[in-house]
Amino acid sequence: MSSSSTKLSLIQPSMLDQDESINIWFTFKNEHHYFPESRINGLNLGFNTLDSEAAVTQNRSLLLSELNLDSEWVAYADQVHSNRVQVVSEGGTYSSTDGLVTTLPGLTLAIQVADCAAVLIWDPINYVIGAFHAGWRGTVSDIVPRGIALMLQQGAKREQLRAFISPCISLQNFEVGPEVAEQFPDKYVDWDSYTKPHVNLKGFLHTQLVDEGLNEESIEIHPACTIENAQKFYSYRREGERSGRMMGIIQISR
């Protein structure tokens, strides 16, 4: 995993070294970035925050400019913690959706997170990509398996799929009530080490990917926890309404 050389700090999966047809980025908080109208420090990319529309628009424009992406060719999910996924063929914001799939070169898919995982999946041979917002609700309702099923319908092959799980909340910090913990397999819940149960979100997502036929070597999981590093990541659990949003981005190169 490497950081981009642009002025903004970004993560790119190391597996992309062998997949020249696919572009993937995940944004850091970029605390050094400052926009006078912003109420939230850093590169906040979420309209569903305390920031003004002007500030978020400026931040998104800066990011897209640095990545040389056409703003008219970006598809955003208007996320609602659902398991709804859909195929898209043009830019814009798709309402009540938490997963996007496309086969169209040049169309960029974008998912926003601030403790949830952005799961980015691609088939570099058959040119199918997907971007999925995986919080606990989406994960237990199988947004990733549903997304993969849609990708297969669009021509992807299981044996060619690769996946990147972004920085997100860790087991050590993902405290939940028993009503949430009971929705996960016991293997991914620590019932004993803490006062309340803790959930291993990354671990469960990894298992879902393997169960869908992905090879272990085709899955890259970023080790960082969003809660533990306030300088690098936004965290809704840590910052509440003061939290911004990071973004996972995937594109088939033109």
UniProtKB/TrEMBL annotation:
Swiss-Prot/TrEMBL catalytic activity: adenosine + phosphate = alpha-D-ribose 1-phosphate + adenine; S-methyl-5'-thioadenosine + phosphate = 5-(methylsulfanyl)-alpha-D-ribose 1-phosphate + adenine; adenosine + H2O + H(+) = inosine + NH4(+); inosine + phosphate = alpha-D-ribose 1-phosphate + hypoxanthine
Record has Hydrolase as a keyword: yes
SUPFAM superfamilies: CNF1/YfiH-like putative cysteine hydrolases
Keywords of this entry: Hydrolase, Metal-binding, Transferase, Zinc
Any Pfam family matching the protein: Cu-oxidase_4
InterPro entries in alphabetical order: Cu_polyphenol_OxRdtase, Cu_polyphenol_OxRdtase_sf, Cytotoxic_necrot_fac-like_cat
Family to which the UniProt record says this protein belongs: Belongs to the purine nucleoside phosphorylase YfiH/LACC1 family.
Protein name per Swiss-Prot or TrEMBL: Purine nucleoside phosphorylase
UniProt source species: Fodinibius salsisoli
Encoding gene (name): pgeF
